[in-house]
């Protein structure tokens, strides 16, 4: 296809040049004959018959062939006038025979009427025809050469492309077989294939990270649910040996553990719906100052039970569009974590200034390497394993804030943790 396209373009170009050449040659011939016609018409009006004949005899045949049919004989380069010659500017081709090495010449000309009769004015055009023929031959071989060259270049180009495509297909088959560490090679050319390879490698990186995350989630689920499920199994087996008056209490304990397991799965399903936008937000105008006030009132009782000081600082109210229930759930989770993991007598501060909410505590804090990991599903740091939980709280917080175009950042309070939410 590439070779055919190149050939067609060259043929069109050569055809245009050929047509332009023919038109230019014809224009030159017509211009030359018109000039000679005007010259001899003017000459016949200014000189006598004898001088007119002398001027015709003196004409250079290389410039223009002039022949005059006088009353007595032919004057000029011809022995007779060809038949059916038109009047200029109409022209006609006719042959003449000479005694030179090129015996046959082709001329183009016509008749001009003068005061002394008809005069034939013609110019040689066979040389122009030979030039056009040479041009045509040269163009033909140029087209053939370009066709062969484009075929060779196109073949080499397609082989280079196919070689890389075959390589990519082979590597993609390796990925399909489960070798997710496979990557497409990237050359120094930085061409379109390299751009595609980089994008594909980026997809593979994301896929590998997601698979590792899934494996981590699976391990965490197995770790966190094996203990309560084992307790459920043991408890169910022991029900048959318990006195009737203890069965009700044992059953209530088993149901509580079962509810904890179900809560984990419900939280995972809810998190997925929020992350994928499947849960519709009940949007309404929310005052961040009022939201923080409600959070403070709800958490104050919990903080007092641990003899902790819960402070509230409000500066400059701001309003956003959001789901009040989900935002309250997310922010209360953060405050509840601060209360839960801070020691007795700790101080926890809720600050709000315009569209920034900060929750600070002086508890154990979180190490720098864990500050991003805590937002992953089912990740529970060692200190948190002493408390009941699903390991999905902070994942839910980040998902809810993301749906509200808000960012969350963790930093050190030395000691303690600072959680900054910016809407």
Automatic annotation (TrEMBL):
Main subcellular localisation: membrane
Pfam families: HAMP, HATPase_c, HisKA
Chain ranges passing through the membrane: 138-157
EC number in record: 2.7.13.3
Gene Ontology MF terms: phosphorelay sensor kinase activity
Gene3D superfamilies: 1.10.287.130, 6.10.340.10, Histidine kinase-like ATPase, C-terminal domain
Gene Ontology CC terms: plasma membrane
Domain (Histidine kinase) ranges: 220-423
PROSITE patterns listed in its UniProt record: HAMP, HIS_KIN
Reactions catalysed according to its record: ATP + protein L-histidine = ADP + protein N-phospho-L-histidine
Subcellular location: Membrane
Keywords assigned: Kinase, Membrane, Phosphoprotein, Transferase, Transmembrane, Transmembrane helix, Two-component regulatory system
Superkingdom: Bacteria
Domain HAMP: 159-212
PANTHER family registered for this protein in UniProt: HISTIDINE KINASE, SENSOR HISTIDINE KINASE YKOH
Protein name per the record: histidine kinase
Lineage: Bacteria, Pseudomonadati, Pseudomonadota, Gammaproteobacteria, Alteromonadales
